[in-house]
Here is the input.
Amino acid sequence: EAQVTQNPRYLITVTGKKLTVTCSQNMNHEYMSWYRQDPGLGLRQIYYSMNVEVTDKGDVPEGYKVSRKEKRNFPLILESPSPNQTSLYFCASRQGGAYEQYFGPGTRLTVT
Amino acid sequence: DQQVKQNSPSLSVQEGRISILNCDYTNSMFDYFLWYKKYPAEGPTFLISISSIKDKNEDGRFTVFLNKSAKHLSLHIVPSQPGDSAVYFCAAYNNNDMRFGAGTRLTVKP
Here is the structure.
């Protein structure tokens, strides 16, 4: 089954404790991205990657890092999480040249 | 800078009637538009799309209309069904830059 998976689905952590949210897709898509969803703001792009070892900032990259060492994986790293990073996070992927993105199920992060 | 706006946070319609969800954008460089549907505890799923060279695209009960001069698009669902109850996001593309609206929560009452 073609899918994007994210782990964990739910995470409660404390300020300053480094964490990683994993994202993996099995569709051999070139393009992957991370979004956060906040009430009244919709989905805002954090980082995206057009292929292995190629990443770039989206609209709200501050406080986040990403890496793309393999085509299928695109982890999101919060080196020192803060309460304003409490949000619902989505990973997405698409084929190069296509418009439709496939989204993961989401990770709800709470930083206290 | 909210380049894609969905001004109605919520919409309630009766089963069998038409649902019309609206979306406005400010960037005239957007050349492709999509609608996504999101159920609770799931990621958004693609619903329907339209290129800027068209003004209408239809897929079963779902039709998207694009008015480029007004920078406005709308999603029509006819007839609406209770299973259509979800949050609908409008999205717009320009050169690998995809922008989403804030979403409209549609409730279809039996």
Remarks:
- Chain A touches chain B at residues 4, 31, 33, 35, 40-45, 48, 50, 90, 92, 99-106 (CB under 8 Å).
- Chain A has no helices and eleven strands.
- Chain A has a mean pLDDT of 95.
- The CA atoms of residues 5 and 104 of chain A lie 5 Å apart.
